[in-house]
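re: ur question from earlier - yeah i can do the single chain one, its not a big deal. heres the input i used so u can compare w yours
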Amino acid sequence: MENISQTIAQDLLKIRAVFFRPEEPFTWASGIKSPVYCDNRLTLTAPEVRCHVENALAETIRREYPDAEVLMGTSTAGIAHAAITAHILGLPMGYVRSGSKDHGRQNQIEGKLEPGEKVVVVEDLISTGGSVIEVVNVLREAGAEVLGVVSIFTYGMKKGLERLAAAGVRNVSLTDFDVIAQAAAQQSYIRPEDVARLLAFRDNPSDESWMKGGR
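and the output i got, formated as tokens:
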């Protein structure tokens, strides 16, 4: 039986949630040029895959964070996943805005959160780790005990891993860049020789020699 990491990787590939363009890289908001773009929002419109993802997130939380009392989604991509997973687990949920509202109660945290409550953050993907660390910091400032993060996919970049470690944030992802790259080659989404280029990008995104096949 396939493990969950391989199953989710194959699911993401099947619904074209992962795009590969090593010859014509994507440019992220950070300016990083990437041979891969992952759009996990597409899982929401694919019921079978969505079921796999949400049940896997729920099982991961049961296994890794058994003391969780509240789930908090990241805005906006993590909100739906947090809501569905919380429903499966029978837990309350809310979400954290990227900034405080400029009207009403000016909330940044939406949903009831009591000081001392044990929180798990639900994120769709992690690259350099900056945005999810900001969410964790907001929750900590509100008095929550953040047990950690669950995410659908992680690039596993060195910078991201180091930032999470420095912030004392634990993340558990359903699948990762290495598994997806291997699965993509096996299923002919990319050429086998492209795997090394993808992993070179993962290891050092600032070194763009992977664009020329690592030469």
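Residues 47-64 form the longest helix (18 residues). not sure if urs matches, ping me
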